[in-house]
Specification:
Elements: H1 13-21, E1 28-30, E2 36-41, E3 45-50, E4 57-60, H2 68-78, E5 83-87, H3 94-103, E6 110-114, H4 134-140, H5 144-153, H6 167-173, H7 188-201, H8 204-217, H9 227-237, H10 247-254, H11 263-269, H12 272-287, H13 296-307, H14 312-323, H15 331-338, H16 340-351
Parallel strand pairs: 5-6
Antiparallel strand pairs: 1-4, 2-3
Helix pairs in contact: 2-3, 5-7, 8-9, 11-14, 12-13, 12-14, 12-16, 14-16
Amino acid sequence: MPRYDGKCRSLSSEEIAKMEASGLHPVLRFPAGKGPILFEDLIHGKMNFDSAGIGDFIILRSDGMAAYNFACVVDDHSMNITHVIRGEDHLSNTPRQILLYQAMSWQPPLFAHHPLILGPDRSPLSKRHGATAVSQYREEGFLPEALENYLILLGWTPPSGQEMFSIQRMAEEFSVKDVSKSAPVFDRKKLEWLNSVYIREKEEGMLSEILIPYIQKAGIRTDQLDRQWLKQVLHVLKENIVVLSQVGEYLGIFFDEKFSFEEGAKTLLRDPANRETLRSALGAVEAWPEFTSSEQTSLLSQLEKKTGRKGKSLYAPLRAAVTGKTKGPELVKTLPLLGKERIIRRIKMALEIT
């Protein structure tokens, strides 16, 4: 690596005075000397640097400000820091800091230099790979516990082999000595999978409160929203939500002011065979008394008998008509929450699409 060649190490008083008179301001350097600099890294093991390869390094800049290596040594010692855990891009700073600790007869902390996280293209993780701030992940709708869980799995494999961890379990099982020396690759799909699992395991009452800001952002008033009904809706929706901000994509299913037909749904609803299926389904629903979740299976059975269609040939046009989408939560759980009158109204709207 580049190092100072010692040009000004032995200047005379006259030479120094002449340089200062010309307006030059000196820096203060630390003499690195010669010989090995040894220390034990908690991740990489025994480290050996040649001080001659480092050269005399700056500890005080020409403007009077302390340089990084000098400042952090004084700062860490003053705060009784016992462990310094940082990226391996700082590994080359450690021998300089070790020399400073030795010069001041201070006990150096333990050092651990972890590998840097890489993007999918195996270049250092950066903004071009996606969100880099915690606030961005919060805005997207990643749960804190899911993000914490994912981060600890980057470069570390738990002894238990499990992937789902509470903070308490992390503290019990984690050891910095077990961190891999190989650079981990950030996998957003793995993070999304973990987040979806945490969402599904979240109790509906707690989840509904967490989702309120996302529902409001989607343009739905929540001041008079029936929380019990919302819990039932979320019980159905949480199987499909990967990040909390996606709740806006499904609100139109349950809120008329947000309901619309997607283009894919319109294409399905223009098919003559599907329209005939919906006409038969409409008659069956109109003849059916107001139904509850306990009767949902019976309703679908009646629809199959009335239309003569089963499986996708029935459920695809019915989903498109009553939800406006081609994909979404289970229809058998969605219908009771929509209610008879809304289902009838939407099927009629679907039959008007040209």
